[in-house]
Every structure is written in structure tokens, then in C-alpha cells.
Amino acid sequence: MEKKIFKGRALFSETKRMRTVTESADSVEELREILLSKGFVEPFEVEELEPEAPTEKQLSYAKDLGIQIPNGATKHDLSTLIDRSLSNDSEPNPDLLVYAKVMGIDYPKYVGKKALYKLIFENLGLRDKMAFFVFSVYRYLSEDRGANLGIHPHKGKIYDFVDSLLLEDRIVKSITKYEGEDLRFFGTIRFPDGNEATGGSTKTIGYQIVSEFVSVTFNTPKSRTWQPKNEFTIGSDSRKQATSKRPPSGCAIILMVVFAACLIDWVSNNLF
After folding, report:
1. Distance between CA 118 and CA 209 in Å, rounded?
2. Which residues in the chain land under pLDDT 50?
3. Helix axis angle, 75-86 relative to 56-64, nearest 10°?
4. Helices marked H in 11-154
5. Cα 20 off chain centre by
6. What is the DSSP string of 73-95?
7. Ramachandran region of residue 88, left (φ > 0), alpha (ψ -120 to 50) or beta?
8. pLDDT, tens only, 212-268
9. Rounded Cα–Cα distance for residues 193 and 81 (Å)
């Protein structure tokens, strides 16, 4: 969640002088650890800042956009809601919020789904970023709505596969070029009214390798033809649940790594 803002003065150990400090932290305890790690010495003369109230201009604009303003909304809250309305963003999956929090990623109180995907993908370390991409492809092809990779039953297999991919620079570069919000779905969705929405590319070497792995390992199709109903909104989780499928059992990790290496070599020689 969004961190609290603290401001005040603290003694800097190197210069023996007081400095003005402004830091964000979840709690006073976390603030203390941050200041100590930066070379400041206790005691700290720091207090939590009160959140700013929305401006009249914000309130007026939000009403024009048809936004229902929550009681006690701050200036930052309303800014988030306005951005969410302008980008036609939707409510994020609760599991994804939990995953972001566990991974130490801060997000605004009223963050939208597209914005949350962007924050997560931009702030994860390389190994976790690769795993999140693989997980996103798996969720898209399988229609598994569980969004918390940290506790997902396939986490181990996904990370084992990622460890083999990290040895291939071309695959890493391909995957890390994606934008976070593109991972909500892949390819093009065509709506009954003729409009279209485009997600992550299905033509990159990164997607080709990962979708093949997902298909073989978890018994999913390699691609999807998606024709949503009129009430479908991009970013929502209102898609029809697919019948659950049991992944193939008993695949040893060594076979997975060998498979990944052979697949990467084949794609490199034949597709690109």
C-alpha cells in the first residue's frame, strides 16, 4: 500500500550537522531503519505529515468525469482516481494487490489494474520479472484467475523454467521489452461492436518460448481466440472460467531444463 510521509530533522553522522529529511515509510519503525541505513544518528526529530486535502479544481474535474469521491479521499487519492478514469482502468485482482505488497511494491490506495501491472513489472528484479511474465502467459492461456504467483501451486515449475531462460540473453531481452500493462492479456481482442484491444505481442521469441513451455507443461492451448461479450471490459476478471485441467505429472526438472534449451535452440534456428 501507499506509504506514509515523514518530515523533520536528523543528525548526519559524517558531518555532525542537522539535516532536513523527508522519507516515506510504512511505520515509524521502518523509518528508523531507513534513516540509520543512510547514516543518520538517533534521536530523530521527525513527524508524520497529514495528507493533503483535494483541491477544488480536482473535485470539480472528478465530478465532471462521473467519479464517486470516497469519504476522506486525499489529494493523492483523487489524483489516482482521475488517472484511472482517464485511462479507462478497472479494479485490480485482489490477489495481485497481495502479491505486490509481499514483493515490497508500493501502490496508490485506488490503483487500477493496468497501473498495478505496470508498477509490478517495472519494480521487480530480473528473475522475478521473468517469472511474472511466464505466469502472465500461463494465466492468459489457461484462464486460471489466481493472480498471486508467490503462493501459486505452479510457482516452483515456473521459477525452474525461468532459471534456464536467464542463460539466454535474446530471451531475456525479448521479455524485458514488454510493458507491464501489456501482460494483462496477449494478442488482439475483437469486440462485438467492431472495436479492438491489443495486449502483449504474441510474435516475439520470448512469448513463443514461454507459450510453448506453458502448453507442454500445463496442458493449455498455445494460443487463444477470444471473443468477449458486450459487457466485457479490458482489465476486469469477468471472463468465463475454463474447465480446470490437471497439469501433466512427474516431470523432472532436469528434463524441463533440457527441453527449454532444445526449444530455444530450435526457435533460434527456425523462427528468427
Report:
1. 22
2. 229-258, 260-262, 264-272
3. 30
4. 28-37, 56-64, 75-86, 94-102, 113-123, 126-142
5. 34
6. --HHHHHHHHHHHHTT--PPPHH
7. left
8. 999 999 999 987 765 554 434 444 443 333 333 444 444 444 344 445 444 544 443
9. 27
CB burial of residue 260 (10 Å; 0-12, 13-18, 19+): buried
User: Going by C-beta distance under 8 Å and a sequence separation of 6 or more, which residues neighbour residue 84?
Assistant: 110, 111, 112, 115
For CA atoms 31, 36, 39, 45, give the dihedral sign: positive
Of the candidates 81, 70, 152, the residue with the CA atom closest to the CA atom of residue 115: 81
Do residues 153 and 147 make contact, with C-beta atoms less than 8 angstroms apart?
Answer: no
* Continuous segment of H or E residues that includes residue 19: strand 17-25
Closest alpha carbon to 18 in 48, 45, 49:
45
- How many CA atoms does the CB half-sphere of 195 hold within 13 Å? 8
Task: Write down the pTM of the prediction.
Answer: 0.71
Give residue 267's identity as a one-letter amino acid code: V
In the structure grid, which three cell numbers stand for residue 155, read together? 510457482
Q: Which three cell numbers stand for residue 194?
A: 467492431
